[in-house]
Structures are given as structure tokens and as C-alpha cells.
Design brief:
The chain is an alpha/beta fold. It has six helices and 14 strands. The strands form four sheets. It has a six-stranded mixed beta sheet. The protein has a three-stranded mixed beta sheet with strand order 7-12-8.
Length: 289
């Protein structure tokens, strides 16, 4: 008989009980907000990278000096992050628009974290440009936390390496991708793969773990961590060892001075409750010895 677990959704705070066989990367498993293992794992990774401990969003400190950028983040957690941080969510294909591959220069070095789930596989080539832009968006101690589908295969697959001027058209009842290369050659591709719809959801590539690490290193990221450990209290139990949340740091970790001050002010207000988050976070972040 399949094992059942009880978990607290770290996004909405709802208490759930379900069979581990229901815990899937994409299928909803929180009875209230519909979060899945991917989204809960992404937010667990963000919590650990920012504060060094696993916190539900409701327990995040309110640190408005921490600035974050979302790229097509789901509303179930985007709205809650906006209550905690100086955070804004953006989209490629609708307002508020933001192209991760071509951000305006005034956005560079502004963000403590950039959050992205299932985006980089849809960015038109060269995808290197998107990772380099993410690096430039971050402050010196900032972190990119993201998910993409990736495999453990020996090599990645770039579906449309010569993409230049392209569009989707209907041909004999099927959707095909038509591309004109820089040299003027016309290419037609059938069997186009979409993730959750059409338009900006075309699967441009399939990563593998090695290619992702190489792309992040080439962009300048100093430290790359794959968050592979399960965390049952948040219902993060995975059936696979790939497509896991990844954190890439621009420089040494740790909160900036403003954020540290904000967290300390909240900690002082509750310092008598030593077993709360604030005590554990104080030790993790170096406030306490």
C-alpha cells in the first residue's frame, strides 16, 4: 500500500495529507492552491538561499530592502512574495513585459534574487545571452534560483539553432514553425513541442545537467547548487533525479547590509522565543555565535 505523508504547503500554508504517489513534479498536490512539487521545491530553494533555512512563505521575514525579479512566476507565490520583499513579477508576452535575454541596462545590478521557473527552455537562441543577462541583473551577492526541464543524457539538444525571423503558422491543420535564417534560407519545422499552450511556450531546446552547469559558469556565476534533497514537511518528494531546482550565485552568499538590518530588527522583537525561525536564522546568518 502506498505510503501517505502529511505536509504543509510552503506556498499557501495549507495542511495536506496524501499518498506519495500523488506527489508529482507537475500535477497539483496541494488541495488549496494547487501547487506541485516543482513550485514548492523552487520556493524551498529560494528560502534556503536567502535565509539558510527551510521556511514557508508565511514565515519569511518582511524585508522590503531585498529586491527580487520574477519571470513569469505563478500568481500563487508571486503575490505572496510581493508582500514580503521589494519584488515584481514580469512576463515575456504580456504586461508587465520583460525579456530576460535583452533587459534594459538600467536594470543591471539591481536585484538580490531572480526567480525563474520553466522559462529558459523557451528563450530563442542563443540561450547563453539569457544566462549572461541574469548574471548582470544581480547585485554582487545576488542569486538566480530557477527550474528548467533537463535530462542526464550525454548531450543537450538545440531544436532551432539557426532561428532568426520566425513565426508559427497552421499548415494542413497542424502548427508548424517557419524560420528565415540570417543567410535567407527558409526552414519549416513540424512536430513543434509546446509547454502549456502556444506562442511563447515553444520548447526551443532540451538541456542536460552538464550543459546547464557550463552555461552558468560561462555567464560568470561562481557557485552553482542543485537542490536535490527531498523535504517531506513541505511535500517536496521527488520521483526523479533530474529537472531539480538550481541556485547560481554571482558572488559570496549572504544578505546585504540593509536586509541584514531589517532581519535583525525583527529578530530583536522576538529574541525571547529562542526556538523560532529568528533564532535559527540568526545563527545561520552569523548574527549569533
Amino acid at each position: 500500500m502506498p505510503r501517505s505523508i502529511q505536509f504543509t504547503c510552503n506556498i499557501c500554508g495549507f495542511e495536506n495529507r496524501c499518498s506519495v504517489t500523488r506527489l508529482d513534479r507537475e500535477k497539483p498536490s496541494c488541495s488549496r492552491c494547487g501547487s506541485n512539487v516543482r513550485t514548492r521545491g523552487l520556493l524551498q530553494a529560494l528560502s534556503f538561499e536567502l535565509f539558510g533555512v527551510n521556511l514557508a512563505i508565511r514565515d519569511f521575514p518582511q524585508v522590503k530592502s531585498l529586491r527580487g525579479l520574477g519571470t513569469s512566476d505563478e500568481s500563487c507565490y508571486a503575490n505572496r512574495l510581493a508582500e514580503k520583499f521589494d519584488y515584481r513579477n514580469t512576463f515575456y508576452d504580456r504586461e508587465p513585459r520583460f525579456d530576460i535575454a535583452k533587459p534594459p541596462e538600467e536594470e543591471f545590478s539591481r536585484y538580490d534574487f531572480v526567480l525563474s521557473s520553466e522559462v529558459f527552455e523557451h528563450v530563442p537562441p542563443p540561450v547563453e545571452r539569457a544566462f549572461c543577462s541574469a548574471y548582470r541583473l544581480l547585485k554582487p551577492d545576488g542569486v538566480l534560483v530557477f527550474t528548467v526541464p533537463y535530462s542526464l543524457e550525454p548531450a543537450p539538444a538545440e531544436h532551432y539553432p539557426d532561428l532568426h525571423q520566425f513565426g508559427l503558422v497552421k499548415l494542413d491543420g497542424a502548427t508548424v514553425l517557419v524560420n528565415r535564417t540570417r543567410s535567407g534560407e527558409v526552414q519549416i519545422f513540424d512536430n513543434v513541442v509546446f509547454h502549456g499552450g502556444h506562442g511563447a511556450t515553444v520548447e526551443m531546446r532540451q538541456f542536460n545537467e552538464q550543459s546547464l552547469k557550463a552555461l552558468l559558469a560561462a555567464a560568470g556565476f561562481q557557485d552553482v547548487r542543485i537542490h536535490s534533497e527531498d523535504y517531506e514537511p513541505f511535500g517536496v518528494v521527488r520521483a526523479e533525479t533530474w529537472s531539480l531546482p538550481i541556485a547560481a550565485r554571482k558572488g559570496p552568499g549572504g544578505l546585504g547590509s540593509e536586509a541584514t538590518r531589517d532581519v535583525m530588527e525583527q529578530w530583536r522583537e522576538q529574541k525571547r522565543r529562542e526556538r523560532t525561525f529568528w533564532f535559527r536564522a540568526g545563527r545561520k546568518l552569523g548574527f549569533l555565535r
